[in-house]
Amino acid sequence: MATSSAQAVFVTSKVLENVAAIPSMARTEEAFLLLLMSYVAYIEATRMHVKGNAMRYLAVIGLLLASGLFAAAGSSPAYAERRAFELTIEDTKIVLVENQSFHTFAFNGQVPGPLMHVQEGDDVEVTVTNLTTLPHTIHWHGLLQRGSWQNDGVPDVTQKAIAPGDSYTYKFKADPAGTMWYHCHVNVHEHVAMRGMWGPLVVEPRNPRPIEKEITKDYLLMLSTWVSKWADRPGEGGEPGDVHDFFTINGKAFPDTQPIRVKEGDLVRLRLFGSGDAVHSIHLHGHVFEVFAKDGHPLPAPYKADTILIGPGERYDIIFRADNPGRWMVHDHVDSHTVNGRKGHGGIMTVVEYEGIPNDQPWYHWGHKKFEPDFYYESALKKPLGMHEAEVFKGTPAK
Ligand SMILES: [Cu+2]
Q: Taking the model in full, what pTM does it have?
């Protein structure tokens, strides 16, 4: 009888463990596990003939909970989706502030690359076709590649680089959730640092934090550097001592960047990416933001700031409440990053514009700016999960 009691305690504790694990996993999987454990508990209780025990009650409670979880999970996809994307790498020309062109190796002809937007746990397959004359790979920065390390995209470490004209299919699980990105891993000092080989990969969490559910505006800003000396010499450049002289948000330098449009009351998330070769110090005027996530991972103790330092490879999700109507600068406080070549007042600068603030002053830069709803990927992020291109980032074919 002592053994049976021990078994009963063991099974009961397993049931309770599963109940405790619910918030961290998908509801459907939890419900299934719980159902299984409850069934085992019930059988065990019956088999051991434990009389008047709590086991049967626990088993019944488990069954009820499991039914509830199944019902709750009913509105969302129960299992991981398979998502297959096709990406080309193309010799493309982009032009910054009307006068400086750069030869890029652009994903689907755009800089930054298309948004890949998936759900945590999805099975992702990306077929990459290299249409340029140089080898490339794609590294999925931030993804753990558990059991799929050969898909990490590092030449001569996990694969042979994709030769010109060849294709390669990457297969991996979208794990973990958060603000991730993808970039080439061949000659990164050139391909990532000055050829525009980067794009966003946003993995939606299965269990978002409460504050995430309240976000009304979601914007994505990839920060990068350029060296005009190598602009039209693909295959060269990215040397120590190179002078960065152009600086971009999503591949555009001020005044070609777009305003960040909000209305009073919005809860705004800016997902910042250090996708180039320099450290940036991003300052938002007129607001205090909360640093919510680092490299896609929600911080255990978010902190308040008005300036945030972001290095190459890093991502920060910052969140602020639009509670101060007006027009407010967002800019790199590494002041030399606010130039276009030798001209001041450019580079990494934009403005938070509140709805309802008149913008017809003749001196205001963006009084008549054509609105591009895709510029911060805000419209792409609202589309159903998948891969989304944006016309605003397309370059022109380069020789
Ligand atoms: Cu490359």
A: 0.81
